[in-house]
Amino acid sequence: MSIKAVTFDAYGTLLRNEGLSLIAGRIVADHALSVPIIDVHRCWVDLYHEATQLPTFRTLRELQHDIMTRLLQRFAIKGDVVPYVELFFQVTTTVELYPEALAVLNALGHLRTAIISNADEEHRAAWRMRLPVEFVLISEAVRAYKPDRAVFQHAVERFGVAPHEVLHVGDSEVDDVQGAKAAGLRVAWVNRNGRARRPDVPAPDFEMPDLSPLPTLLATA
Predict the structure, then answer these.
(1) Does pTM top 0.85 for this prediction?
(2) How far apart, in whole angstroms, are the C-alpha atoms of residue 87 and residue 19?
(3) The domain spanning residue 144 has which CATH number?
(4) Cβ(170)–Cβ(189) under 8 Å?
(5) What's the gap between Cα 175 and its chain centre?
(6) 3-state secondary structure (DSSP) of residue 108
(7) What is the pLDDT of residues 196-210, one digit of tens each?
(8) Of the candidates 26, 40, 36, the residue with the CA atom closest to the CA atom of residue 74
(9) Are residues 101 and 58 located together in one domain of the fold?
């Protein structure tokens, strides 16, 4: 079962994504909360996953305003959400590639490659580094968010191949592993922190600590 194309998630896979915890930290500091920063961050993550799967599509800027409003309400905070929405976009538009990312992308020149990301156009415009891929597909263009299978189907149709001939590479168990498997793609899970897989998520076809093993993996897959 040969691989003819590879899709990559962006944030956390190709692009560093550690800064999101700054939002929770700012909220805790601004309002002198006694709860751990990680608890606020996890609440934000849960609200994000819930919001992106609602039937009516909204951009991330629209969603983040609603998410931050609900997040402050969850911790009984009365305050303006706009600074935290702006911080989200500041963090997610100030990006750099993981050290191995460009070398791995260049090593896959014999394969068709693309990026599929839950991102707004303002995120895409901030990726000023050269990315040697055939196309970039963002949620704002598809009007859907991963793990919705429509996102993966758009990429597969654009490649003009069968779903099982595409390998999706991503770090999110839900958005990437669960979403791509449901759409019939093969999946390589980039598990940079060595965390245990959630029991409700199907097993990926491959698991890697970073992107470095990918060229060898694809040479034998």
Answers:
(1) yes
(2) 10
(3) 3.40.50.1000
(4) yes
(5) 7
(6) coil
(7) 998 999 999 999 999
(8) 40
(9) no
